[in-house]
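Write out this protein's structure.
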Amino acid sequence: MKERIKSCILALLVLGSLVESYYLIYRLPGADSAVLSENLYVKTDNMGPEEKVENLLYPDKMIIHMGEGKHTLFYPDSTFYSLIMNRLKGRGFESFQRHSVQDYDWDKIRNENPGIELSFGAGIPVTLLQRVMQLSPDSLFEGESIDRIWIYNIKNDSKAHAIFFSTRGDIIYEAAKADLTVQDVQQHVDFGKNWTPYKTVSGDYYVPDSKISLVQVDMPSGMYTIEQMQSNLFFDVGSTRYIREKNGSEIYTDSKRSLQVDQGKNWMSYSDPAALPAGESTPAKDALEAVEFVNQHGGWNGTYRLEATEEGRQERKVSFQQYYGSYPYGSYPIMSHSSLQYGVINLELQQGTVSSYERSLIYIDESKAVKKVVELSGGADLEYRLSLVSKTSAVKDLTPAYVPEVKEDHLELIPVWKVTLSDGSVLTLN
């Protein structure tokens, strides 16, 4: 009997020891967080703060039409641009009516009617535009993307007209009810009376009558480390292995995802081809997903604008353009070029899930920036240079921009005219 009791006690002790060993091995503090790490991303080594999508949605330029063929332009962060945008954000637009773009004489409206034209570049989905403007769209308008908004007055007409241009190019939507008076529009237009005059070339682009001033800036710069990028992008950095390509690129992979680093161009490309689809995909949802992905995998090292949401054959490409500026001169895009990729963040999504992520590894210290005001050409000189360019391909857009140059441990932003041609190519005049 005693032997049987001893055997039972011994068995219980052995069982207790096994249970204790199990908890020691599989239930150590932090073990649960490791199991859930693929769903709960832990932020480390941020490149910049998180950003709300609302702060990435704004026009790339504001064109003020003053009648009698007179125009001027305001750019982001300039005094009157900010003032007008803040006022428009508080006004409501509803009861949208669909028309053909051919129903209007835009040259006449441009040159004779006082108004404000907001340019959104490649376009912005209406469902995103609702986040920064008070729109009440119907189901048809809600599915559109808008690349321009034109608000103007007509002589002897008691109401202001608000037109939203579809990126499809042949359709416009007019807000039959706009919370703007003729006096409101005229007041906004009057802000441009003492600004630099511009003349238009077929309504495609605008040339200033005189030189314009921008800030050239030189800032200390550095490089984010590969370790920082790995901790931002891989769930378990210890599981990655290193591969060196013949072209000098470095690849880090955990067999599912890969991080490719081009040290020569200071550029990283992250790929996750095995990412699980999130479900329904729309331009607006993909843009929101792209913003959230950047928030959680590095953050925003500067001021950015949603540049495009382009649909490919099997994926959607979402790009963000970096801007730099100084009050009161305005903010302008930073151009990436062949020898230095900087100023853009590119993502690809498949069925709502990010499968590719690209950005520069360079960071800058704006607190130690050295600035000086420089002038870009205007008037007859600029018109002549543009006429030479247009002999090979028509000019479609002209905008001030910055070209980045790395000099040892500094980054310099040099003001230029960015010229976009009808064939899609881009060149600079400085």
